[in-house]
Amino acid sequence: MLDPNQKAVVIGISGCSSSGKTTLARLLRDIFPNTFILHEDDFYKPEAEIPMKDGLTNWDCPEALNIPDMTSALEHIRATGELPATFDSKEDINSIGPCPITTDFINTIKCRVADWLQPSSPGHQILKSPQKPLKICILDGFLLYSPPPLLPATLLSQMDIKLFLLVSKAKALQRREARDGYVTLEGFWKDPPGYVDKIVWPEYVRAHEWMFEDGDVEKARLRGDVRERLGVLVNSKKEGEETKMDRDFGETLEWAVESIMRELERLVLGKEEEDGQKEGEKEREDEKEKKREKEAIALNSFAMKKKWAAGQRERNARELLIKKAEEQQQQQQK
Q: Which portions of the sequence form the region Disordered (predicted)?
C-alpha cells in the first residue's frame, strides 16, 4: 500500500536507449490526468566529469549520473506532488521523432482511461478525489532498476511502479542512428561512429543481464524472480518458445496503461488484497457448503437406513404373527 501522506506516485519507465521510453512517457502524460515527467537524462554530470571508455565519453554508465540529486528530486516529488522549484529540464527540448501510432488509437486508449476515471470507477477515487487527488510522476530513464552496487537501494525505493521495455540490439541501433543528437548542459552531443556497439549496448547488458536467464539480453528469457526481486513489470510477449523483443508500440501502450491502472488500484485501494480476501472468504464458504452437503447426504443416508430398519421390523413382526396363526390353525385341525 502507498504511504497515505504521499502526494505523488512515481512510475519508472526504463529500458535500453531508443527502446521507446520517452515516447511512451509523453503519451502516458497526455492520457492520465495530473501527470508530469522527470527525465533521468536531466541528472547527467557536466561533460568534463563523464567517464571515458575506449577513448569515448561514456554517457551510459551509473558514474555519469548524479544519483543523489535524482533521489532527492524524487523524495521531494513524492512528498509535495511537485517538481523541485529549481528544476530545469533540458531533455524536453530533445526531439523523439514522429509518433509510431495513430491518433485514433490513442483516443481509444484515452476513452478507456476516461471510463476508469468515472465517479463510479476506481480511477476517480485515486486521481480525481476532491479530498486527496494523487498526482503521477513518470521517471523516464535508461538506468533505473539495477540492484546494488550499480545503483543504490535508496533510488529504487523511490519508485512505486516499475515498467521495463524490451528492445533488440538491431532496433535500438536503427532508432539511435536516426536521431539528430542530444541537448546537454554544455550544448549538443552527437554519437560518434560505433558508439552503440562500443558504449550503449555493452553498458545496457552490464546493467540488466541480472534480469535474464544466463545473462542473455538478446534471447530475453526473463528470470522468474524479476518481479519478486524488484517489482519490475516487463512488456514481454511470448511467440511460441521465444520472447518477442520488438513489440508493436500500440501493444506496448496498451500494456503500460493496463499495468498502471491495475497497480494504482493495488497500491492506493488495496484492491488485490481485497480481492484476495474475498476469494478466501468464497473458498471458505464453498468448503462450508460442501461440508453441509456431506452432512445432508449422511443424514439422509442415516434416515433411509433407519426407515428401512423400521420397515424390516414391521415385516418381521407380520411374518411372526402369520407363522403363529398358521401354527395355531394346525393345532386346531389336529
A: 271-296
> For cell 530533445, what's the residue?
94
Phi, psi at residue 146, to the nearest 5°? -65, 130
The answer to whether residues 72 and 217 belong to one domain is yes
Q: Are residues 205 and 230 in the same domain?
A: yes
Give yes or no: residues 191 and 322 share one domain: no
Instruction: Round the CA-based radius of gyration of the chain to a whole number and report it.
Output: 34
Residue 55 to residue 62: CA distance in whole angstroms: 18
Give per-residue pLDDT as tens, 242-270: 667 788 899 999 999 999 999 999 999 98
Which of 240, 269, 298 terminates a domain? The answer is 269
Q: Which three cell numbers stand for residue 312?
A: 424390516
CA–CA separation, 20 vs 252, rounded Å?
9
Q: Does the residue 235 lie in any domain?
A: yes
Over residues 103-108, mean pLDDT: 95
Half-sphere exposure of 98 (CA within 13 A, CB side): 4
User: What is the model's pTM?
Assistant: 0.78
Long-range contacts (CB closer than 8 Å, 24 or more residues apart) made by 192-199: 192/56, 195/56, 196/17, 196/172, 197/173, 198/53, 198/54, 198/56, 199/53, 199/54, 199/56, 199/58, 199/59, 199/60
Beta bridge partners of 39: 140
Start-to-end CA span in the chain (Å): 100
Domain that holds residue 299: 278-334
Dig out the grid coordinates for 183 from the structure.
541537448
The strand pairing partners of 232, in sequence order, are 162
Percent of the chain whose pLDDT exceeds 90: 48
The strand pair at 232-234 and 161-165 is best described as: parallel
